DNA sequence: GCCAACGTTGGC
DNA sequence: GCCAACGTTGGC
């Protein structure tokens, strides 16, 4: 199973909103690199939900509940989206400053390539971030 | 609100 | 196919 990080501007789609719906199509990605990552997501993969711009914090964890299909908001149907469902709020949101301060996380695309909105994480990076968020996820529930 | 980074577009 | 111009993202 793979691990990911998804960015959203809270003014566009917030973690709070995500928690109030059963699942949500992750639409609006218009970058080819990000699209390829969306296509690589599999049912049950987990992703961090990151608030960009104003908050700059990882807020929670979502699970992929529908693999990629054409993004209905893209007229040319060149881009894709997946559906994600909130599975856990981080007990302590992890801030960008914290991530930058941790040398183990210096290779995160979040830092190296700040404009990428969908990115893969290694299992190691995932575990470090879960720990920083004081949150445990039982991955056996999500195979 | 500014600006650096960077992806995309279009003229040549 | 190159590259200048332009638009967008996102941190500060």
Any overview of this molecule?
The chain has about 140 residues and is of the alpha+beta class. Helix content is about 25%, strand content about 35%. The chain has 5 helices and 6 strands; from the N terminus they run E-H-E-H-E-E-E-H-H-E-H. Strands 2-5-4-3-1-6 form a 6-stranded mixed β-sheet. The longest helix is centred in the last third of the chain and has 10 residues, at about 125-130. The termini are close together. The relative contact order is 0.23. It binds a DNA duplex (12 and 12 nucleotides) through loops.
Q: What are its keywords?
A:
143 residues; alpha+beta; DNA-binding
Question: What's the quick description here?
Answer:
24% of the residues lie in helices and 34% in strands. It has 143 residues and is α+β, with helices and mostly antiparallel strands.
């Amino acid at each position: 199973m793979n691990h990911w990080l998804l960015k959203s501007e809270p003014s566009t789609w917030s973690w709070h909103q995500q928690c109030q719906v059963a699942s949500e199509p992750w639409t609006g990605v218009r970058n080819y690199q990000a699209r390829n990552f969306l296509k690589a997501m599999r049912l049950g993969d987990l992703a961090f939900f990151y608030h960009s711009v104003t908050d700059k914090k990882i807020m929670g964890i979502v699970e992929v509940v529908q693999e990629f299909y054409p993004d209905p908001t893209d007229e040319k149907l060149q881009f894709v989206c997946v559906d994600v469902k909130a599975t856990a709020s981080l007990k302590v949101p992890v801030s960008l400053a914290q991530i930058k301060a941790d040398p183990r996380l210096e290779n995160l695309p979040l830092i190296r390539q700040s404009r990428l909105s969908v990115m893969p994480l290694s299992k190691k990076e995932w575990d470090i971030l879960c720990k920083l968020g004081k949150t445990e996820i039982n991955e056996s529930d999500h195979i």
